[in-house]
Description:
Number of domains: 2
CATH architecture of the largest domain: Beta Barrel
Transmembrane segments: 234-255
Oligomer: single chain
Family: Belongs to the SURF1 family.
Organism: Sanguibacter keddieii (strain ATCC 51767 / DSM 10542 / NCFB 3025 / ST-74)
CATH class of the largest domain: Mainly Beta
Structural class: alpha/beta
Number of helices: 7
Number of strands: 8
Membrane topology: Multi-pass membrane protein
Radius of gyration: 32 Å
Subcellular location: Cell membrane
Amino acid sequence: MLSVARQPRMIGLLLLFLLAAAVCARLGVWQLDRAHERGDLADRQAAAEAQSQGPEGLGALLEPQSTFPGDLVGRQAWVEGEYVPGTQMLVEGRAHDGAQGFLVLTALRVSDDGTGGASWADLSGPPVLPVVRGWVPATADGAEPEVAATVLAEPTGPVRLSGYLQASEALGQGSDVPGRTDSISSASLANVWGGPIYSGYVVVSTSDPAQPAGIELLDRPSIEGGDGLNLQNLFYALQWWIFGGFAVLLWLRLVRDETRGGEKSADEDPFGALARAEA
């Protein structure tokens, strides 16, 4: 078989098939790039549509004690309730516009999520919602917030919030400072605040009544680590790569058939093969 593969005709065919395989591989990469581009475009269009629709009642998007779907990240929601006294926490090590600071995290006891209480009818009572009220800068050494404690205090009385949904974070290492944490984890917060609780949190965009000056509102959260792939173009990319593989396999098949053809001729005319060998 090796002697057949070394024949000039087979080497020429190999170069031709390798060129075809290279073209197929390049077309596959191009389709993969297109899959990413079209997937990202679809994600941006979906985000723009969700943004233009305005906030929906939280209960229509996410119920307490339920899994947070990834496509809810950045969706707008509204909710009403009252901040729970004594639940204020500062989330350490959070940067905003290039500066280090803290997120202001507070528990909201929900009274209306657009479902009239139906979303928690089977639970032990009205749920608590982790709410990121905004961001405050840290002092030069990063140890304390620059704003006064009165600014950070939980507002009292009923409040109506609109904001962006974000998924609960993974458990962190915690903090040695009372009233501090290093992650917004619903599982961890449930141990401190009690439940029922939501598996995500709201980043405030508007508040009625308004929040005190000194707490900066944050931008809409973005999805990180998404695949952003258009499946149709991904399928086309796989097709091109398969075609390239077929080109190489076709050459191997030709070499094998040529080898078997030579062996068959030798079996049918052994004296002729011997004469050719002696010559």
